[in-house]
Specification:
Number of helices: 10
Protein name: 3'-kinase
Organism: Rhizobium beringeri
Strand content: 15-25%
Pfam families: APH_6_hur
Helix content: 40-55%
Structural class: alpha+beta
Distance between the termini: 54 Å
Number of strands: 11
């Protein structure tokens, strides 16, 4: 899988392969620079590579080469981790870094991006799941429908901003990887800060309220609007998990949604 691109781009293997559910990755050296060779047939991943090229290193990792199923990316070599920070007393700092990176990605660009995925299409699985399961999912779906019908501050979105998708690139700062290439209201991109299931404290209402104040201030978002996006996003995540099915992760997402819904009612 990697061999044709190692030859084509004159790459030197620099570590063990990394296998994910959608991609095969290999740390390499390209022109004496640390890079990551990523090969995938997943359509979302391929769209994401196009968006990375469009950002051209501003807020995201550079794309050094791209052909078919393969993309050669700038590799993060820093030792810091936003997830580790969030779990070890620097949760607020991590959230501010996530917001700052998102702001760079949302900044206007003059060049067009072909065929981004609208948020209305991204949310297409929520309403059928809400009809099937009802309860909290139905509340989330109703909120999502209102948001999607009246989107504000529409821009190109990363689509999956969380603590493991913003990495330490040392002198270049904190940069994004693995976008979904979406288009819609920028508030959507801040919801996953509250919903990353890798972070055990996301179901703590006290932590939730503290991060709500931080993220809404850093992102310049009305707290109520952010709460609505958190509820909508968490409902969509739960719908996907229920479809897998992954009941435990679905319940975690629904717990976050319930916290957001409770805050909206308070």
């Amino acid at each position: 899988m990697f061999a044709p691109y190692l030859d084509r781009w004159s790459l030197i293997s620099d570590g063990e392969p990394i296998i994910t559910h959608s991609s095969r990755l290999l740390p390499v050296l390209w022109q004496d620079r640390p890079a990551m060779l990523k090969v995938t047939a997943n359509i979302d991943e391929r769209y994401g590579a196009l968006l990375m090229q469009w950002w051209d290193g501003d807020g995201a990792a550079y794309v050094y080469a791209h052909e078919g199923d393969a993309v050669l990316l700038e590799r993060a070599t820093g030792k810091r981790s936003l997830l580790a920070m969030a779990m070890n007393g620097e949760d607020d700092k991590a959230s501010r870094i996530l917001c700052g990176t998102a702001a760079r990605l949302h900044a206007p660009r003059e060049k067009p991006l072909p065929d981004p995925i609208p948020l209305t299409r991204w949310f297409r699985d929520l309403e059928p799941a809400a009809s099937k399961h009802g309860g909290t999912l139905a509340d989330c779906s109703a909120i999502a429908n209102v948001l999607l019908a009246d989107q504000r501050d529409v821009t190109i979105l990363h689509g999956d901003i969380h603590h493991d998708n913003i990495l330490d690139f040392e002198a270049r700062g904190w940069l994004a990887i693995d976008p979904k290439r979406l288009h819609g209201e920028r508030g959507f991109d801040f919801a996953n800060i509250f919903a990353n299931e890798e972070l055990p404290v996301i179901t703590d209402p006290v932590r939730f309220r503290r991060q709500l104040a931080i993220v809404s201030a850093e992102a310049g978002l009305e707290p109520k609007r952010l709460l609505q996006w958190i509820a909508a996003y968490s409902g969509l995540s739960a719908a996907w998990f229920l479809g897998d099915p992954n009941i435990q992760q679905a319940e975690t997402a629904l717990t976050v949604a319930r916290i957001a819904l409770a805050e909206l009612e308070s």
